[in-house]
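for the writeup, i need someone to sanity check this before i put it in the appendix. the sequnce is what the collaborator sent (i think, or maybe the updated version? ugh). structure was predicted straight from it, no edits. if anything looks off just tell me and ill rerun, i have time this weekend
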Amino acid sequence: MRNKYKFNGKPKKITPRKRDNHLPLVIVGGGAAGLFAGCIAGESSLPALIMERKHKPARKLLMCGNGRCNLSKDISAKQMLEDMGQPSAAFLSHALNAYPPSAIQRWFKQHHLNLKLMTDRRVFPRSEKASDVLHTLTDTLRESSISLCLNAAVVSVEQSNHPARGFRVATQNFTVFAQNVLLTTGGVSYPKTGSVGDGQKIAKSLGHSLRPYRPGLIGFVCTHPWIQSRCGHTMEHVTIRVICNNEITYAGDGQLDCESWGIGGAAAYNASRWVARNQPKTFDLKWNSQGETIRITKPATRPLKEAIVTIGGIPLNEINPRTMESTKCPGLYFSGEIMDVDGPTGGYNLSAAFATAKCAIDAISR
């Protein structure tokens, strides 16, 4: 039998077809901000490629709200900004007013995700499954023909004039060219989910500075007989106060989880956010429970890798708040936790990720 793959005579010269691989947009990072940006790009008829370093997208999103995904909070943009405080509020004012929590909820409802409103105004998928939020995002990407490339860790982004002015985005195995790059790689907590700071390194290579990383929304390591006697239990509606030089500098309500290593829960997390932002030299924690006053002297926070959000990263004064474009490198954009923005626990940080992603895509589309 003749080998059908054997050439008879002189082989025919084959000229490779010229391919246009200069994309309008490459999104680096397939988390909440990156996937949502891709969805908005698709609905705006803006061709885009999402590149994610892990074998599955949005692994940190799947952990959000203990796997239930608190995707927003049903309050006004004004209230959300007031709750977030400075410096995040001033920077996020344009993005959140243009795309408030009500718009985020409306988008997910229009894409067939039923939502559930809690008594404290937090918004969850009705199923209380974070996987349903992820499926909504990936289904929308597929329907709008936005490509998602997994196992594609970006090793460098360089400014380029070939084949046109823009960026050369390289992985270990292939390279693409893009007119614009949107970095959505998140912070540096929970590194196993893919948040390892590669987006910040890319930004630094393109002229940005970096603010030091600090753990935001994290528990405190401390010991006290009151905590030890309640280990494994949750106290509802506890008001934690941060005491500096015998003065109350912060007070916030929420649930308090008693753990073998100390305290967690929303009340502790939001107190830790104040500490991370203000960095007092020393501080105490104080709260009341059933007529008993508990005071913890000089507590420490849990490691950065366990933080719900990362404080630090790209400085806000190096980003245009109306477009999310870099002021150091035209054509480079940011959204989400890669920037030095953060909010309280309870849907604020995902709302900021979605709103800044929408802001960036709108600017690129224009």
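The longest strand covers residues 247-258. Residues 218 and 269 are 5 Å apart (CA to CA).
thx in advance!!
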